[in-house]
Design brief:
By secondary structure, the chain is of the alpha/beta class. Helix content is about 40%, strand content about 20%. It contains ten helices and twelve strands. The strands form three sheets. A five-stranded mixed sheet has the order 2-1-3-12-4. Strands 7-6-8-5-11 form a five-stranded mixed sheet. A hairpin with a 2-residue loop joins strand 9 and strand 10. The radius of gyration is 23 Å and the shape is globular. The relative contact order is 0.20.
Length: about 260
């Protein structure tokens, strides 16, 4: 039979375990994140790591940064915005809808010209000058920074006028990718993260556009007004700055500060 002191020790340990479990439940919280469409795949992987690491739950909505901006101004209850640009968080700060101290660049995106057809696109994107190009997909340049970057490239190459009749606009970069993936466009400007996996092109042919041909695609994160003082929202922003998160972001083809 166990001694009284042994029984007291066991009871004490059991009590601590219960308190620990209750504490874990108490601190676990939820965060709702509006995520730029180009960052959908990295965010899916990061969300799993975040939940396992912190115990918090995360709900991710994916779409065009411009559309999220309109929704946030109209009261959408997002806690955090992972934008595809730096201008949108800046506007939200100026309008009192976001915390200026929370803003940081979580990734710098890269633009790619991609086709499902092998060998169609060479290392200089020559297909853009070819009459053989029938339809070119881009994201809406008024709503999506990757679409604006695509227009930059066409302008600097002197091709905007000749390409304009061939353009097919998606609401966001995810839809532009789908136009090409489904065969509804011969090629399209997409995010590098959408077509590379583990540093290798998943299929087709690609030209990774030199960053000198378009404005930098710096993607900023910001804490929105509904997320103020929410532990899970603050934890997510801290998590995105961690070395493991940055390594995963780089693995998807982004530059991570």
């Amino acid at each position: 039979m166990a001694s009284p002191s042994t029984l007291r020790s066991v009871q004490c340990l059991a009590g601590l375990a219960v308190v620990g479990a209750l504490h874990s439940v108490a601190v676990a919280a939820e965060v709702t994140v509006a995520t730029a469409a180009n960052f959908a795949m990295p965010m899916k992987a990061l969300a799993e790591d975040f939940e396992q690491t912190t115990g918090h739950k995360i709900t991710v909505s994916v779409g065009a940064t411009g559309q999220f901006y309109a929704q946030i101004r109209n009261g959408a209850p997002f806690d955090v915005l992972l934008a595809a640009d730096e201008q949108t968080p800046e506007r939200l700060i100026s309008e009192g809808l976001a915390d200026p101290a929370s803003r940081f660049t979580y990734a710098t995106g890269r633009l790619a010209l991609w086709s499902k057809t092998p060998n169609l696109i060479d290392a200089e994107g020559s297909i853009l000058r070819s009459a053989a190009l029938t339809r070119l997909a881009i994201a809406n340049p008024k709503l999506a920074p990757y679409g604006a970057a695509a227009i930059d490239v066409l302008e600097r190459m002197g091709l905007q006028a000749s390409i304009a009749p061939k353009l097919v606009e998606g609401a966001n970069i995810a839809q532009a990718y789908q136009f090409v993936a489904s065969g509804n466009a011969m090629a399209g400007f997409v995010a590098v993260s959408q077509v590379f996996q583990g540093g290798r092109l998943r299929e087709g042919s690609v030209w990774v556009v030199p960053a000198t041909l378009h404005r930098p695609i710096r993607q900023d994160a910001i804490l929105l007004r509904p997320g103020k003082d929410k532990p899970a929202a603050l934890a997510l922003l801290g998590f995105l700055k961690s070395d493991p998160a940055r390594a995963k972001i780089r693995a998807f083809g982004y530059e991570a500060p």
